[in-house]
Amino acid sequence: MKSKTRNRFILIAAVLLLAAYFLYPTIKFSMMSEAEKEKLKIENQKKYFELKSKTINLGLDLQGGMHVVLEVDVKELLKRLAKNVDETFTTTLVETEKRVEKSDEDFLAVFDELLQQKGSNITRYYYSPDHRTRDEVLKFLRKQINESVDRALEILRNRVDEFGVSEPTIQKVGDRRIIVELAGVTDPTRVRKLIGRTAQLEFKLLEDAVVSSKVAEKINNFIQSKINPYDSTQVETEDTTKSEDEAISLDKMFSSDSGKSEQVAAKQDSNAYLFEEGLFFLNPRDKQTFLVPVEKQNKFQKILELPEVQRIIAEEATGAEFLWGSKPVYNGQYMPLYLVRKNVELTGETITDANPQRSHDPSAFGQYEVSLTLNDAGARTFARVTGANVGKRLAIVLDHKVYLAPEIRVKITNGRAVITGLDKIEEAQDLSIVLKAGALPAPVKFMEERTVGPSLGQDSINAGTFSAIMGLFLVMIFMVIYYKLSGLIADLALVLNIVFIMAVMAYFHATLTLPGIAGIILTIGMAVDANVLIFERVREELGKGKTVRASIDVGYGKAFITILDANVTTFIAGLVLYTYGSGPIQGFALTLMIGIVSSLFTAIVVTRVIFDYVLETRTVKRLSI
Amino acid sequence: MRFFGKTNIQFIKVRKLAYVFSLSLIAISIISLILHGGPRYNIDFTGGTLVQLKFEKPIEIQKVRSAISIHGFGDAEIKHFGAPNEVVIRVGVSESDEEVATVIEKLISDQIKDNPYVVERVEKVGPKIGHELVLDAIKAILWSMILILIYVMWRFEFKYSIGAIVALAHDVTITLGIFSVFNIEISAPIIAALLTIVGYSLNDTIVVYDRIRENLRTIKRGDKQLPNIINRSINETLSRTIVTSGTTLLVVIVLYFFGGEVLRTFAFALIVGIGVGTYSSIFVASPILVDWKWQKA
User: Fold this and answer.
1) Is it the case that residue A246 has pLDDT exceeding 60?
2) Looking at the domain B15-42+129-296, which fold is it?
3) Is there a contact between A460 and B247 if contact means CB atoms under 8 Å apart?
4) Can you say whether the dihedral through the CA atoms of B214, B219, B223, B228 is positive or negative?
5) For residue B48, which of B109, B114, B127 has the smallest C-alpha distance?
6) Which CATH fold topology does B48-125 show?
7) CB 3.0-4.6 Å disulfide test: which of A16, A315, B103, B261 passes with B82?
8) What ipTM was reported for this prediction?
9) Does B137 touch chain A (CB under 8 A)?
10) Which residue of B has its CA nearest to A571?
């Protein structure tokens, strides 16, 4: 073998190996049963997501699910923010909506314009000491509109866990829209409720460090007792022996009930996988914060739900509950968990404003803080709560998730508080969004809603796969009939091409949609084009009486430019489609583009190497083409 | 095996006939489009609600219609979808804020009790989104044409890009026309199909152009022989054109029959487009070079 041919062989082998490496997780994942996936997800969340992130993602149209496009409902927002609403206001609002519906005009600008035409003024409805002039009011309203997208986004992100969807997409598009994609969720009313529900912002006290430590110790003992049943505390051994006794006696007494007791035993066994070392620990620097490794969050949540653990909480920290933090900490490794008193000290509706700012305190240079303003009722409650609990920590809880638990330093009487010690401006911004979420509206309306049931998705996968295999088969047979042995080489290239497309998709964790499958099928038909061009050229050259070697050289050489030119145009069309298309269409454009690039490699490089190898190892008088 | 040996078909000589044929197809397309008041857009573009239901047993359209007409959905479009037990119900944008899909589902559950169903698909598109989609689609088609034009100008000459663009406009118009004649709806995936046709049709055209360019270099007989060179180039690439179009058509036809109902119109657009695209690269894109060049000379 010539060294050039050998090098190419090595290159192809390397690419193939790489493709196999990329595809392995997808194959492994698709071989796993639903139950196995669920188990891995609870047992080791991190590993599960790591594996999943290396597979080809199925689009919503294939796996079933919901795609929702939301937009800030400016009309509703204006309505809710307005004071002194009168007839003119209401009619103008409706007129504005009609005019804006089918144009790109800005709602607020049109509303303002129409009000002026009617001799009215926007300041009449939104006047406040902070914004008096028309420009100031418009600026204020614009800020409200922009902020409400962020509020809605934050609320959605916070709540979406409730669906238990593995990879929810919540994405801000442009400055007014949010796209929500939930795989497996097909009930639009659930999403509607989730989004429509008003955000609940509450302030609750954290349990003292002494209590948290005690609870932590007991839970730890309980877990240890489950790991080593013979080496545990009194209470737990008593419990287990008791239940074992019960099981045995029941078993003996009623043979008919043995099934039930087996179920109990089986249930205990099925929980056994939950227990292991290192599930949680108290933050050494902050004895009121439990830290749970992110990948074990699901597991620990299950443990928290066990009746034994619920009893520990009820005994040691009466009137308290565990609430998760909103985001992982320490480089995203640990999820914080807090023991929070159930009693609501203050609700978010009392907050009138919250703003991020740079810290004024010289000792906290470079840090950020959030200033908070409460209404009169809130200020009174706040004064009482802070007065009675100086030194304790007050958790800011949005929809049952703890965002932050700052310490109460002093009694705050004027309804103006400052939350200090935030390291980044983003943190301060997020916190002020959250603080406002309980009081300020974030109305959204559904612009687009697409739901695909799981059975339709499965039908589509089946029909798509069948068409692809059938198409592939027919094209392969045709190539062998038309180009004989050379056609077989092209067929090999075609199969490799499909493997490569899948591998690239898996590597980028790209989404395969139904039109995407169509794109692959189309690629099957078009990918042989390069080989057809080459083979036709080779035939021509052979027809002119050239030798096999020369014909192949000339054929590949002359066809190459044509192939390149012809493919670039299709690629451009794919690129434009990817830019302007949405969801499923992008999936089509993606497979088409990947298919073009990969077919250039397989049809030109791979087939050439095979021809070269054959020509070098034996004397070929006549080419089977 | 080969379909064609060395052919010498006089494509250039019959080009006037081909022009008449193409022009009449375009005329039919445009007339049909005018008569239908433009392409028939589906809810992706117009906005509205689509509900696809799968019943346990086959169901009559009339039964579904009477069930939902109580609530004023009498003019809804109801069709079987792929199977007699599957129906698609389409309703335009409603004035009220009610949840059209939920209302329809409830009406049918209440009225048709002996034949339970599952919801296969719900699509609800606001009019504004649809409006934007139309703009995006137009932008996408224009941009792809402009970019391809630039590429062809760079790789070949300006005259070639004119030929390519004429062929493209020809293909897209006729495909849209055929959709209009058969009264098939244009959905978002159809726009994707149209763009693919744009790419594919050019693919074919460029292969012929490439051969013309090569022959112009190697055979030096003066410009007067241009029609011959073009004719020869089309003949030389004819076998490839037919084989590639054949394999592509093969898979698209498979997709049409076995790819499922959702992809059927998409596959249909591709079948029409590939057919028209192949025809145009032989009978339109290249012959036009002859007429264009003669005029300049």
Assistant:
1) no
2) Multidrug efflux transporter AcrB transmembrane fold (1.20.1640)
3) no
4) negative
5) B127
6) Alpha-Beta Plaits (3.30.70)
7) B261
8) 0.87
9) yes
10) B199
